[in-house]
Amino acid sequence: MNYLIYLAYGLADIRNEAFCSILSYDEVAPRRADTRLLIYTDDAAAFQQVLGHREDIIYPAVEPEQWQTWRGAVNKVYLLKIGILEHAATHYPGNLLFLDTDTIWRLDPRPLFAQIEAGNFFMHQNEGRLAIGNTLSRKVYKHLGGLEWPSGGHILRVTPNTELFNSGIIAFRSDKAYLLQQVMTLAEQLYAAYNKHMMEQLAWSLRFAAEGPIADVPNYLWHYWNLKDARPVITQVVSKYAESSHQELLRQLQKLNLPALHQQELAYRNLPGWKRTLRKLIGRRWKMPEFDI
């Protein structure tokens, strides 16, 4: 069995991003008997109000205190995905593909599931070597370079060749779930060493790489991780069109052109610091355009 796994806990904006992602999946992939969606949420009723009661969607029951436990000893929301993947591997064994809610499907993931079945590891995108990456990556390398951590019989090190993968997608076969507690322990150690949000994705990158190569999947979907300002706009669209057909709701969401906005904001973010400062001074910093919802 193949499972797409979403985590939509807390904010209504996160749920609305998930609606956008799920409807985009429906557009590129026909419903199949061997594929289910697992939505880990604290408000299943909100999903059913928009998506209806679908046989291919499962809402695993999670006790309120479990959410806090899954945040780990360092109390990080980023670590929730480790807990839900452990739960999924136990209760829904098969090919597991977790994805963040701020994603839009471009292609049917059926070939991807076949590669997961073959034992491959996937994350969203290789962001390159820490040592020569963006400003934050270089800071992480400066603080953690040369340090080492034992994990699963391996000694994991941050070296000049360490590659960082974006964890907007995490995919593996459920019989490899023994790695998850090792990823959690490593993430807690990394946060203790350098308390930056990206320690979670570094933990996945280091531990998976010790098992074998990690493949990335940017051609399958867009991941607009940098567009937090888009959330209120997405929520406005969902609020207005939630009772329309799924096709109409998706059409209205597509009018936002989130992939193009993702690229525009990313281009601005990657400008040299002095250019960003200059653009701010002359009132030309990047910002979300206004939409007539």
UniProtKB/TrEMBL annotation:
InterPro entries in the cross-refs: Nucleotide-diphossugar_trans
SUPFAM superfamilies: Nucleotide-diphospho-sugar transferases
Record's protein name: Nucleotide-diphospho-sugar transferase
Organism per entry: Hymenobacter gelipurpurascens
